[in-house]
Protein 1
Amino acid sequence: MMNRELDALYHSTNQQTLAQWQVTQDIGEPRGAYYDPRRLALAAGIQPEMPAQIRALLDDLQQLAGRDPLADILPAEGFHFTFLPLTLPLYEPGESLPEKIRHLTMCWKHYHAQTIKINALRLVALPGQLLLAGIADEQAMAMRQAFCQQVLHSAWRDELLARHPALSLPPLFWHSTLLRYGATYLPQTLREFFLARQGRDYGDVAGSLKLARINYNWTQCYPLD
């Protein structure tokens, strides 16, 4: 996907979300956790330094919704961008990984510690979530495509497909989820938060790739390499 196409996708995603919010003014039905909060998954990604403008954004979000029991806000220590989510949360903390993990680490050795950069960060809204999404450089896009294909031709194919049952592979967005809301739609206060900031450029981030066992928001991260 070309940069202009991804930029257009983020814009159209926001427009679709705004249309849904206009139809439904309340938060809709409650929902359970997006992912198992205790078990760990396998994923590749980066944990970059947090720029000051993003820290301020998270602080504002915490001030607004930190006391809302339905608002699951990304803690600063979990700041990350996923390169490729590989499995659902399958593993108990401390559980040994299957022997075939060597197939995955063999695939990963060509990407370990490579630096990727994600530019033009902006807020993207889903009906019940707020994302911070950007445009990866061409090298990062090519690496993700290549790694995804390697995993699809490895012993981890089924786990990867289970993690992405209805999405294109690799995923189109380059993002970090800042907030997950425990209902179908965000409340009006968080919609207004997004509307006031949707046009802002939050800069760029860069970081070294790692393959890790992680919880859903990367506040627990155990590198495999």
Note: The longest helix spans residues 3-23.
Protein 2
Amino acid sequence: MNTHFQLFFPKTESAILDAILLPFEETTIKIHELKLADNRYLFQITHSNLNTLFDFSKSKDYQILHFDTNKSFIGVSYALNRAEGPFIVQTQSKWLLLIPFEHAMDPQVINRIITFNLNYELNAFVKEELLKKLNTAYPLSGHTGVGRLYTTVRRMKAEKELNIPLSWRTGFAIAVASGEGASEMSAREWTTFYTDLCENLKRDYPAMYNRLFAIK
């Protein structure tokens, strides 16, 4: 899924790069088997385990930018295959930008990175593909109160982290006060509604809340 990857630097500076978004629930990712083209790839790690293993054996060389759950820049590493044996990188990062080494960013630029944001091209194909992935990775349930609340918060959390356009977000949750679905709200209304739902989940079902917001 093509997206614009917007890097932020000090003093409100920013730079936009094109990248292909790849969400993964797996704890081990074999880069060679993905048959990646000569593009930048943004990996979103969605599992709750602390570590993810990236197997770069037999793959091309990459520069890797690491970001945490909140999209804050952590650091940079390099996958440079110089041996015949296995080459595995273990990381706690939840977002990783893989850049082909021949197109590597200047270290002086990298050292100034603070965070990033995602901006999608608003077209029907991207919307369909994105919602299909969200429905598969974060299905919604209305069978029980806890199921409805938990899966709604989980879905809204993913939409927030992916910076999904408001009009594309799920309308599954309805605000009692306004009668509006989440996809019909303003950015401020959506944030308030999401925060309230998180607090309700934390108060009524703390174990389920901790599954989503566990402190690493």
Note: The chain has a mean pLDDT of 86.
Protein 3
Amino acid sequence: MDTLDAREKEEFLSSLETIKELEHSEFETYSIVKNKEMGEHYLHYFLSHINLSEGGRRDDYDHFMPIDSDDVLGLLFGEQPYRFPDHWRNPYLRSGNDNRLIPFDPTENYDLEEEAAAELAMLEQLELFKQQWMNAENLSAEEKEKMTKEYFAQLDKILQKPEE
């Protein structure tokens, strides 16, 4: 499948046919659609959002994730999960409040467990350092400097990647 390029929403929608609606509610719809001209399949997620700050105006959003033949079959037979955003880890097209579909790559937002663990470890070190600093009134300037250097060394150690 070619890379995703921005395109006009209405033109794109007019080239689609629905293969199967997977799920439908008042605010969400999941379906498998096919581009009649190109033969490409997409998992289509439609969301209708009620914007209360705008007097209850409904904003509609479309998301189109390209899927290959195996995924189409898996979705048709109910063997593959499809709920947004849990299973939308590949680049896809999404709409906004204008007549465009723009590419979106969610991969930068996944697999951040290591970064989250590092963040927690750094916060823990900061709390420890603050505690030590509060009890450092009897320490000399050299001892305070040493304590500060040790703190930054701990941060450097936390931030080091395994391949470094």
Note: The two ends are 35 Å apart (CA to CA).
Protein 4
Amino acid sequence: MNAELSRQPRHAVDVSLDDLPTLQLEDIAEESEGTLVARGAAYAKEYAAVQGKATTLLKNLAVTQVALRVKYDDMRGQSGAYRSIVADMYAGLGLPEERVTQMQATVRYHIGNIIRRHMTPRELEAAGLRPDAPIERQRDDRAARAVILQAHKATSAVEESTPPPRTREEAADEESEQPASHVVKATADHLRLADVTLNMLGKFDRTVIKTHMTDGQRAKLDKELRDMERKIASLRKLTQKPSSKG
């Protein structure tokens, strides 16, 4: 923004939410720079206010639906009676279907968090509900994506910095030795990969394995873990000091 524009007074621009039309470029083509800036600021301020109100309204809507689940003794919200009365809440909104679907998804997110604040772990289990709230699962998902990204970066770094295998002639030629900086990076990348791998193994959840996996899934995981053990044992032969022979 130039100095002249910044000195211009801000004009009040009426932005009403009542029957707010979609703005067209030709509608404001003749407005001054100062008016355009004021108009944009007004829209931004109104949007922030509406977003804050929308979040509160959707949370309150979620509370009403949780209260209905309590009355219907249907904390999972799967009975026909509950679904019918909730459908009436959204009927006649006059919104596009995708907007209504998005609204309902957000409300379900809030419902999940509210329920887990008011039910004990035993009550959740009896109702067939997961103990972790959607907000916790969201954090877990972000953490899992971060671990995957770290693993990808560490793997790529190791592949790039690991020196190619040398022939016998190259090994005998001192001038063919890898630069010290390259060797340092390769070793550091390998240690970082080991750290990331350990971090990934720590993400396995005992409850998921013991409670939610089928026998076939546990058997598959067991095979993968045995394969990991063999690879780890092979690598440890390289890291352990050879036993001294008397």
Note: Residues 1-10 have pLDDT under 50 and may be disordered.
